[in-house]
Amino acid sequence: MSDRKGGGDYIFDIPPSPIRDLNCYSCGHLMPAVGYYDSVDKEACQRAQERIDLIHAGKVCNSCNKVEGIDWGFGGIIKLRTYNGQQFCGGCVVEAAKQDNPDPSDKDNKYEFNQASLEWSLARVRSYCKTCGKGYLVAVSERSWRNLCKSCYSQRRTPQTVSDQSK
After folding, report:
1. 3-state secondary structure of 63
2. Distance set, CA 63 to CA 5, 67, 68 (Å)
3. 15 and 38 in contact (C-beta within 8 Å)?
4. Above 70 in pLDDT, residue 112?
5. Long-range own/partner contacts, residues 32-35 (CB < 8 A, 24 or more apart)
């Protein structure tokens, strides 16, 4: 037998290994006189069986079907969290919580999503400059003392002159 580039004979022979019985790792079904395998990776079969057992036990993310402890995520081992009576992995629980509770931000208040508590928390608020009246967003922790916008604050600071630097 040859292909269009020439050469390349293919011969398919029965492997010389002895014919053995093979047991299915999942259901235990016996397949007698199977001669077309050299060896069975018992550790891989055991890992596959553990994954199947976890799936049957309900340790699966309801959104992306990742299995807890077995499937590796970008951040490490998958750990499931319960949200509204369902199991979700770390990324999917955040998306489910955001879908249930939309972002309450408006032009005066900006919120950030806290992944630990699955709630929106106030991050920035609109404040108005005492000098020009212009509105600007400021962090919640700064709103008690920051009362000028950047342009008014930079105008208030006087540049140092040469005589001031020599003193």
Report:
1. coil
2. 48, 11, 13
3. yes
4. yes
5. none
